[in-house]
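Lab channel / #folding
Pinned by the channel admin:
"Please post every new chain as: sequence first, then the structure tokens as a reply. Keep commentary short and put observations after the output so the thread stays searchable."

First post following the new format, from NK:
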Amino acid sequence: MRRLLIASIATAVVSSAVLAQEVRLPLKEGSIRFAVIGDSGTGDGHQLRVGKQLAAQRARVPFDLVLMTGDNLYGMERARDYEKKFTIPYKPLLDAGVKFYASLGNHDDTNQRLYKPFNMGGERYYTFKPDRSSVRFFALDSNYIDDKQIAWLEKELAASGSDWKVMFFHHPLYSSGGTHGSADLQREKLEPIFVKHGVNLVIAGHEHFYERVKPQKGIAYFTLGSSAKLRKGDLKRSALTEKGWDDGYGFMLMEIAGDDLYFEVLSDTAQLIDSGVVHRTGKVAPTPGRSSQPVVATKPASVP
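Reply from TO:
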């Protein structure tokens, strides 16, 4: 147990390092590349501009999947609303075969799980693993974390066997937002499971800004909920904040290659807001009757 505590403290020290230079995705052979959007379903000009820029960036960074951190459709959810708030903004990507994977936000009807382009398989929470990869993604429903979802998560994580375990859902477990802040109830239920099973990365939405939180208990946390909604001035930078931005709309691009996850945060005008590398510093070996401590750190990196 003492070793686990020391590992967590060491990670916090390493993660405080300032990036020495701009880091771009290296586009390594065999890597897994994906985009992230959050709080996106307005159907207005902001969503259209983000969608247009996302499609433009795919010419530079070929990615095959997009994670959605919830609030996928604001307001009505009729057939024409799915068209206006999803199909039209992302049509070039959908036409190119890019798959979108949704999680449910507090503004979403649970029937979204039945919408095939969201690839939820009819479930409120689910998991998937890209072919020939060591990465497994888990979409959770953070609106209602009941015993059934907890049991499912424990079982799926225990059987995962993947080097990278990536969670995405709506409510951020750690946040410096003035309107919402950290989702303490969800953190109480989820964080012990994440630590026990070696989760590396957690991506959330809900807050209408971008924040990269300093690694907590060896886990990297990102919040991105400004792909169509924005609360300027709502990011109250705190001891949690490694990097934050609440001045505009944007999205994330990520690439996992070996033990490194590269990330870029871009605005709807292609401005680079944040970039860096999350390094998985060791393999997590489960020990019967004990928790396994995953260790990641945000580090300076040379540009390939």
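NK: Residues 29 and 67 are 21 Å apart (CA to CA).
TO: also worth noting, The chain has a mean pLDDT of 88.
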